[in-house]
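Mods, move this if it's the wrong board.
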Amino acid sequence: MATRKSFALRIDAKTLEAMQRWAKDDLRSLNAQIEFVLRGSLRKSGRLPRQADDTDPSNGDSIE
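Not the wrong board. Structure tokens:
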């Protein structure tokens, strides 16, 4: 498993509430949802290559 690092995140209340709802809808923790969205955005922009063994840590599903 990749090394994980912690950091503080400042986020406005409306964005946080929306992310919490989205995480709940997808049955993920808020942290896992934020990572999911960030990885998807990084892949879409070409800044993070897609890896065949990359999985979502919250439920083991492949990330698209």
